[in-house]
Specification:
Elements (H helix, E strand, L loop, with lengths): L9 H6 L7 E4 L2 E4 L5 H18 L5 E5 L3 E3 L2 E3 L3 E5 L21 E5 L6 H13 L4 E6 L4 E6 L4 E5 L16 H6 L4
Parallel strand pairs: 7-8
Antiparallel strand pairs: 1-2, 3-6, 4-5, 6-7, 8-9, 9-10
């Protein structure tokens, strides 16, 4: 017996209760992200901290972990979404809005052991197609970072290679420094 699955619209998906780990809506399909593990959590926390220490006090940008971003017909949850200060959705009171119906300026994904690199790279390419300036795909197993530029050019970086960051964010990191955070 074959079960038929009712296809959802983006709006129907957004009305569903949240799942743990979170689910994304990509090209009409609901896909649950894998549960983050130690390396993933450590890299996510350290990158958010490094970006926010540089960019937030000067009101340049802000890094958000696990934030649902809805744009271009998809609802994705990058591991880190960085928004320029003037693009952060706000409530009339000035507080951060709960819904982010726009692309991040910088999207960072951290590959989990059982995660498809193609699917995650597809999310970063979707971001760049809709205005994201820069994407990073960290692969802890390979100690490498794939960089996705706004024109969808992809570059693989390793070791002491400096990492590109969006204009105006004075963050200087190498691939080696990023993966060095895994040693505690």
């Amino acid at each position: 017996m074959v079960a038929t699955v009712k296809s959802l619209t983006l709006e129907e998906f957004l009305q569903l209760p949240e799942t743990k780990p979170t689910s994304e809506f990509i090209n009409g399909a609901v896909i649950q992200k894998p549960m983050p593990q130690g390396e993933h959590s450590r890299l996510q926390w350290k990158l958010c901290e490094a970006i926010n220490q540089i960019a937030e006090p000067q009101k340049i940008a802000c890094a958000f972990p696990e934030l649902r971003c809805t744009f271009g017909g998809n609802a994705i949850v990058p591991d880190i979404s960085v928004f320029r200060w003037d693009r952060i959705p706000r409530q009339p009171s000035g507080r951060v809005a709960n819904r982010f119906d726009l692309h991040p300026d910088w999207a960072i994904e951290i590959l989990s052991p059982d995660q498809s690199q193609t699917k995650v790279l597809g999310n970063l390419l979707h971001c760049s197609q809709h205005g994201t300036e820069l994407g990073w795909l960290l692969d802890p197993a390979e100690a490498s970072i794939l960089v996705v530029f706004a024109d969808q050019r992809v570059q693989l970086l390793r070791a002491e290679r400096p990492l590109p960051v969006p204009n105006g964010i004075s963050l200087f990191l190498t691939v080696e420094q990023v993966f060095g955070w895994l040693s505690v």
